Structure prediction request, 290 residues.
Amino acid sequence: MEIDRKINNKLLIYQKNEITEYNIYLWLAKRQKSTHNKEVFKKIAEEEHKHYKIWHSYTGQEVSPNKWMIGMYCLISWIFGFTFGIKLMERGEESAQNEYNTLKKLIPEVEKIIQDEENHEASLTDMLQEERLQYIGSIVLGLNDALVELTGALAGLTLAFQNSRLIILSASVTGFAAALSMGASGYLSTKAEENTKDPFRASLYTGITYLITVLILILPFLILKNIFLCLACSIFFAIAIIAFYNYYVSVANEVSFKDRFLEMAILSLGVAGISFGIGLVLRSFLGVEV
Prediction:
């Protein structure tokens, strides 16, 4: 069957996407410790290669994979976990599936390709059991508490002390003590629950998440001299952390980004604003000059 140049160019793009995803799924299969996960990824890779051959039968051209895309998604999957990586990739496939519908009359095999892509999503949803997603509640606990407590503490300390060293010292002591406390709380709460999660791992996720967040928020006070600029940078970092984290969860768990982001941002910034005001009142009321 002859097809015009415009459609042929589209098919070449689809063909390139299929061979690219084939290589990504093969890479993911090699990295799986679970035999079940490994076999599922191999099966999906084989189907992607079949789709490549279908497009090839119409274009008559060999196409090389997009090495940059392979490297990017493999890196994303390595850093943030394969759940996030493949679901991010699947988001891109949704728009492609919509375009496939326009080709149904011209290419009969399109219906089978669409069905395969939908089955991919179902298979992946059933098999994804990453540790970091199992302990997402522990990460939320550490992240949310650190953002709320430290942004508030930094705002209050900035107004109360107006001295970088004292702010760093006070925030560090508060942060490290709170990280240990949150880790212990995470351990005890997980142990009290009837689930399969390891209390020690849960405490590590909570404590380490809290500690990393504390270090990021204190960082501007270690680098910059103007304490109010430092506070502004810390608040900016807090918003950036909230945005990144909620984007990660929205992709990995397929939930709304906007609602979760606004809730965490308003909570953190609201506490920071109240603490800033309390610091100002206490400084004036007590007549403290540092």
